[in-house]
Each structure stands twice: as C-alpha cells, then as structure tokens.
Design goal:
The complex is a heterodimer of chains A (about 325) and B (about 120).
Chain A: H1 3-8, E1 19-30, E2 33-43, E3 47-52, H2 58-66, E4 73-78, E5 82-83, H3 94-97, E6 98-101, H4 113-123, H5 129-138, H6 146-149, H7 158-170, E7 176-180, H8 188-205, E8 210-215, H9 218-221, E9 227-232, E10 235-241, H10 242-248, E11 249-254, H11 259-262, E12 266-272, E13 275-281, E14 293-296, H12 300-311
Parallel strand pairs in A: 3-8, 3-9, 6-7, 7-8
Antiparallel strand pairs in A: 1-2, 1-4, 4-5, 9-10, 11-13, 11-14, 12-13
Chain B: H1 11-25, H2 37-44, H3 48-60, E1 64-67, E2 71-74, H4 79-104, H5 108-123
Helix pairs in contact in B: 1-3, 2-3
Chain lengths: ~325, ~120
C-alpha cells in the first residue's frame, strides 16, 4: 500500500454546504426508460459534471432542471429557496438566473445572428449587448460588423452554433449555468477556452455561481470538474467531490496470475497477457493483501470508466 | 508555481508544498492571506476542489487558518514547528535514498559510508 492511500484511509467525505439545485423523488417515464432520482444535490459555488453513457438520461435530467420539460414527477428546489412548481410565476427570478445551452435548435435555423441577439435581449432582462458583441469577436463566431450579424444560424458550423449559444449566456448576468454537452462540438483549442471561461465564471461568483454540465469527454473537462455525478439507465450510480472520489477508489495493477484472486474485490477489471488493471474501493484494499501489485491514485476518467463498466450493459465479448 | 500533471504526486500536494515552502522561507509572512481559492484555481487552470484540498491540508498542518468569508491567512510560525517541517523533508529525502539503494543492491553499511563521505565533502 502506498503512503498516499494509508494516510487518507477511512477519512470522511466532505460535506456539501449549500446547494444550487436540490432534487427529490424525480421520476420521468418514457417507453423502455425511466429517469429515477430519489435524491440529488448540486453544490453551490462549484462546477459539477454529469457523466454517463448515451441514453443514461443526462439530457432528460438537464431539460427538467432547465425548465424545458415540465412533465415529470418530483420536486426541484433552486438555490434552496424557489420550488419548480412556482417557476412560471412572473415574480419568480429563477428563469432569469439560469443560463442554458444544449443541442437541437435552440436558435431557429432561419434566424440571423442579429435576430438571435434580439430574441435573447427580449427574453432576458440582464443582457449586455456590448459583452455579446465582444464575445462574437473574441470567439471568432462571425465577422465583425453588421455583415457578420446578417449571417444565418443555419450557415454556422456546429462548433460556431455552440459558441453562439455560449456567447448568449455569458453576455447575461446569471447564477447557474446548465450546459448540455458544451464541449462536444468544439475543437481542442476552443475546449480549452471553454474551460477558462467556466473557471472565470466560477471565480467571478466568489462561491455564489454554479455550473452543471454534461460531457462525454471527461478527460478534457477534468480540470474544471469539482463534483461528479455518474448516471446509468436513468439512475445516479456514483456522486461526490472529485478529490473525495479519488480517495474512495484506488487503481491497482498486478500480475496476470493474480487476476482471478483479485477480481471479486474490484469494482471493475481489465485483463491482458501481461497483467491486470482494476479499480478497488480503497476500504477493500486489504482484501488484496499479499498480492504483488502496484497502487495508484486514479484520474476522474478512470473512475468514471470503471463505474460505468460496472453498470453498463455494453459487452464486447 | 510549477505543477506537474504526470509526476505521480497529486496536484493538491504540489500546491500545498509550494505554499509550505513559501511559508517556511518567510516569503509568506504571518497574517498574509493566501490567494482566493477560486482565483488560484483559475490562474493555475485547475478545479476549485483541488485548490480547496491543498488549503485544507495546510490548515490541518497548522500553517494557515481559515477565516469565514475572508480566506486563509498564514499563522505565526513557531520555530519548533518549522524545524519539524524541515525534519520531515530530510526524512522524505533519506527515504528516497534508501529506496534507491535497495533497488541498486547497496547495503546499509555502504549507504552510511556514502552519506558520511558526502557530509565530509560538504564540510571541507
């Protein structure tokens, strides 16, 4: 056992102080799929990643939270104050406080960039046109000037459409960003810029601003993920602050002749001719005592893959 | 601050070590505030929780104190504690030397001689 593992063995998990979102008994049924979340909280002042396979229910959940779907059972509390049932009331500030981006045609394809700006301005009180123009230029979405804004949404690449949506929410004054796969259509450089923008947003809030995003590319987003929620088949299968998860699990590598003995103690295992690699609950490491193996602190990607593999129905053989 | 992603040393420990060194050397003085958690995360391009963990580690070691709403400030360092910190570093380095010696098949006796030789060279 390494030093690192020993010193954190059995340490308590960090408590969540305030939540930006609190979900209770959320249920949404589709044919052959049920989103079922008895209890989930998203910590305020942090950036949370929602991770899971295609069809795990990430988009459905984000749509409920963003108010795009209202046909579900259960209760959502925003900023420990406002209930989702009151969301549509005039006096409810929640809609103004949330910035959302997602797939599909959020902006209608036959609109121009300028019209998208006008609509956003109409819909939200705290929209800063100067900031929007600056972002259009900084993110190289369209050419400068009136000509650029006359460009139709349908003429933009997927990457530029996402950048336009991001400009639309970063030009507003918000308290919570809900981003459905923001990194997917972006190139590696723009993903890096996105991560900087997200960290800047969290920093500008001084503990008051929160981000919830879903992603397939957890490795790209690991340095902007504070809290992780892993979903499978409509359920949350793991959650926690990333630094706690990295202590809860330990990566073990050993010789192939020991793989059979080690397997029952591991969350998941991959074997080859030269040895095995698996993820072990740190508290179960003693079950592997005596085996010739190395331990390592896992990355968030490694934890996600192992937990997803444990719950997945995908099988290669 | 130089952070290595693939050194095997967790990032939060690297951050804590950098501030520990600054506190021990006097670069950060009693009462000085550490950078804000979210500000440092942004500067270093790492997550907030990693920075937070580094600061919590320093707090556990008694080097800094958290002030609600104001951040972390550097405690008065008594000489005993600083000596303890230095001792810990020396022990860590010696542990490394022992590990390397074991891999190379160098025995305890030979290792001691080596250390003595190096000390003599330093003194002369």
């Amino acid at each position: 056992m390494t030093e690192g593992v020993k010193s954190y063995y059995g340490r308590e998990q960090r408590q969540m102080k305030d939540s930006a979102l609190k979900m209770r008994d959320i249920k949404k049924k589709f044919r052959g799929f049920t989103l079922d979340i008895p209890q989930l909280e998203i910590p305020k002042g942090f950036s949370t990643a929602l991770i899971g396979e295609n069809g795990a229910g990430k988009t459905t959940l984000l749509n409920l939270l963003a108010g795009i779907r209202l046909d579900y059972k259960g209760e959502i509390t925003f900023f420990e104050k406002w209930k989702d049932a009151e969301r549509e009331r005039e006096t409810n500030p929640v809609r103004e406080m949330i910035g959302y981006t997602g797939g599909g045609n959020y902006y209608l394809p036959n609109w121009t960039v300028g019209q998208a700006e006008e609509v956003t301005k109409l819909l939200f009180e705290k929209f800063d046109s100067d900031k929007f123009e600056l972002l259009l230029e900084q993110l190289q979405i369209v050419e400068r000037g009136i000509g650029g804004k006359a460009k139709k949404i349908s003429e933009l690449s997927d990457g530029n459409k996402m950048k336009l949506m991001l400009a639309g929410i970063f030009a507003r004054e918000t308290q919570l960003l809900i981003l459905d796969e923001p990194a997917s259509p972006l190139d590696p450089l723009m993903r890096d810029v996105l991560c900087d923008m997200l960290r800047g947003y969290i920093e500008s809030g001084g503990g008051e601003k929160t981000i919830l995003f879903s992603t397939h590319n957890i490795a790209d987003m690991e340095n902007v993920t504070d809290y992780a929620v892993i979903m499978e088949h409509g359920r949350v299968v793991e959650r926690g602050f990333v630094e706690d998860l990295k202590e809860k699990y330990t990566l073990v590598k050993g010789e192939s002749e020991d793989a059979e003995i080690a397997e029952p103690a591991l969350v998941s295992i991959s074997k080859n001719h030269y040895g095995f690699e698996g993820l072990c609950l740190t508290e179960n490491l003693n079950q592997l005592a005596g085996l010739d193996m190395q331990t390592e602190r896992p990355t968030l990607s490694q934890i996600c893959v192992a937990v997803m593999r444990q719950n997945s129905r995908i099988r290669l053989s | 601050m130089k952070l290595l992603q693939n050194s095997g040393i967790p990032i939060y420990q690297q951050i804590a070590e950098a501030f520990r060194a600054d506190i021990m050397s006097g670069k950060l003085k009693t009462g000085d505030y550490l950078p804000s958690i979210r500000g440092l995360a942004k500067e270093l391009k790492i997550s907030v929780i990693t920075t937070m963990k580094a600061y919590e580690l320093l707090e556990e070691e008694g080097l800094v104190t958290a002030m609600q709403g104001k951040g972390f400030y550097v405690n008065a360092q008594d000489s005993e504690m600083i000596r303890e910190q230095h001792m810990r570093r020396v022990e860590d380095s010696l542990q490394d030397a022992i590990k390397s010696a074991r891999i190379a098949g160098i025995g305890g006796e030979e290792l001691m001689q080596m250390l003595k030789l190096l000390l003599d060279m330093e003194e002369s």
